[in-house]
Amino acid sequence: MEAILSATKTSAEACGLDKVTGTLEIGKEADLIVFDIDPLENIKILRYPEIVMKSGKIIPFSGRKEASHEREKLRKIVLKALNKL
Asked: What is the pLDDT of residue 16?
């Protein structure tokens, strides 16, 4: 978990960007990646995101080749969770 925090929250703080990025909060840019496996259980999964979001928009990426309907289901789950923030 320390490595993930270092790459996100701590890096944003060090660059003076913690008011706009680094954590998932209302008012901050919605930059995130979603995995189908807990990265704390298998750090190598960080190479294969299911969904990548930049400034609140899902962007194309070269992750694993999964069925598009599965990716769409994950996208809807992420958007629903973000709407609850």
From this structure: 92
Among residues 67, 4, 82, 12, the alpha carbon closest in space to that of 38 is found at: 4
pLDDT tens-digit profile of 3-32?
A: 778 788 888 899 998 999 888 888 888 788
* Topology adopted by domain 25-83: Urease, subunit C; domain 1 (2.30.40)
Structure tokens at 82: 């973000």
Is residue 38 within 8 Å of 73, Cβ to Cβ?
Answer: no
Beta bridge partners of 57: 54
For 15-20, the CB contacts below 8 A with 24+ separation are none
pTM: 0.55
Burial of 51: CB neighbours in 10 Å, binned 0-12, 13-18, 19+ = buried
